Amino acid sequence: MWMLIPLMMLLMCLSGYTVRIQQQAANERGDAEAAITGGRMRIYLNAVQQYARAHPDLNGHVDESELALPTWFLKSGPLGHVLASGRVYVYHTAAPPGLIGYLSKSTDDAVRIGINQHGILVGPHPSKQTNALPSQVPEGSVVIVF
Fold first, then answer.
1. What is the rounded distance in angstroms from the CA atom of residue 85 to the CA atom of residue 36?
2. Which band of pLDDT confidence, cut at 50, 70 and 90, is reported for residue 10?
3. Which of 40, 102, 103, 139 is spaced 20 to 30 Å from 33 by Cα?
4. Cβ atoms within 10 Å of 30's Cβ, excluding its own
């Protein structure tokens, strides 16, 4: 009977270690997914910005075939854009957790980042000014404004 106590303690320690390793792997997977999605959004933003500079009077959506996207870039369904009043809005409707944090760390201050909440860009930094968003930007999307 006394021999079972150390065995039970060992099993409890091993199960705690296993749970910790699984949680760490899930966190790293989430961080990687946010980085990949954020990188794709920035590539897409650059292509839309380039088009907007060449066509400053255009408002609305541009067909992706007209954008100078790299040949290896495959646009995913939840990624989109809107041009309005000289601004570029790139959005992702199915954003992974951590995407706003990744984008905030990897972009400069000229770019605004946030979530569309009732047509307003709500960003991670409350001190930054909020923007009204075009109605074409889906509710709840993560948005980059330039």
1. 29
2. confident
3. 139
4. 14
